[in-house]
Design brief:
two-stranded antiparallel sheet, 10 helices, alpha/beta
């Protein structure tokens, strides 16, 4: 154990010992910061965090596994409309995936349970022009100061309004290595995005955000482009090759390879509605969040994580 400075000074009557201990201290201060310890600054487990953005207190849950990689990947899980960070943590099982694969997860809270994504969506955040991009970038920066985070492995995923917010982050920041939207679309302007990897999951029977585009029947009446068109936009952004498509039961997967080891993937589930595949089935939560029962044809969380894990920045 490295002694305290006071302990070194107290050994001055033994010069050889004092010099040796001072040398240990000097060596301990050398080298990159992440070499000092593999342990995160914050304790493992779940904690509630608050930061102030534009004069408004914003909250998020942070989950640190018992043995995170150092530096650790970070996954930002964005809840859907009417959801919360706590609900997303409970429903979509990212903590369990983090324990298996040693990454950190953040579950931010939107203002009034929604995100301002542009394109008229959604609710109070859109009406009040809440700067959710500033909040999420500030949250990521705060986490990076608390825990050794790998800047090449920062990812965002989300469902519905949260999935749209993942696209918004991809369009307006350079932080992310990849995004994993589910049951969402892309709204608002996206003039010159930085290339990144994309995996999108969508049910063909989604009525809230229709797979073929147009106005959905949900509360927000989201009017978005066809999902294949969104996917083609990112293939063009990433300068990808033509996609290769395969089908296994209800699940059809289209994968395009891109330069710099990026990829753009679209997974469709025939007959699935507006939902997170493999989520905890909870009729009350589904009713409150206007979700359909989760598909069992695919487990979205490990599927998205496996994509993230193989696509760093």
């Amino acid at each position: 154990m490295v002694p305290k400075l006071g302990e070194v000074i107290s050994t001055a009557r033994h010069p050889a010992i004092a010099l040796g201990l001072l040398a240990v201290l000097a060596l301990a201060g050398c080298g990159p910061a992440h070499d000092r310890s593999d342990a995160p600054t914050m304790p493992s487990g779940r904690s509630t965090q608050t930061i102030t953005v534009d004069g408004r207190a914003r909250t998020y849950l942070l989950y640190v596994p018992a043995a995170p990689t150092s530096p650790a990947p970070l996954v930002v899980m964005l809840h859907g409309g009417f959801g919360t960070g706590a609900q997303a943590e409970k429903s979509y099982h990212w903590d369990e995936q983090a324990d298996l694969d040693h990454f950190v997860v953040a579950y931010p809270d939107g203002v009034d349970r929604a995100w301002n994504t542009g394109g008229g969506c959604c609710g109070r955040p859109a009406a009040n022009n809440i700067d959710d991009v500033a909040f999420l970038t500030g949250m990521i920066a705060t986490i990076q100061r608390q825990i050794p985070i790998d800047p090449h492995r920062i990812y965002a995923t989300g469902i519905s309004n949260g999935a749209i917010m993942a696209y918004t982050l991809a369009c307006h920041t350079t932080l992310l290595a990849a995004i994993g939207p589910d049951s969402g679309t892309q709204l608002g302007d996206c003039p010159s995005p930085t290339p990144l990897s994309v995996i999108h999951i969508h049910g063909t029977a989604d009525q809230n955000i229709p797979y073929n585009g147009g106005t959905g029947s949900g509360v927000a009446h989201i009017d978005g482009p066809p999902i294949p068109q969104v996917n083609a936009y990112w293939r063009q952004t990433d300068a990808c090759t033509s996609p290769q498509t395969s089908t296994n039961g209800a699940v059809t997967t289209s994968v395009a390879s891109c330069p710099d080891a990026r990829a753009v993937e679209l997974i469709t589930i025939a007959g699935a509605g507006h939902q997170w595949p493999g989520a905890t089935s909870d009729p009350l939560t589904q009713r409150l969040l206007n979700l359909d029962p989760p598909s069992t044809a695919l487990n979205a969380t490990p599927t998205i994580w496996q994509f993230f894990a193989t696509h760093p920045k």
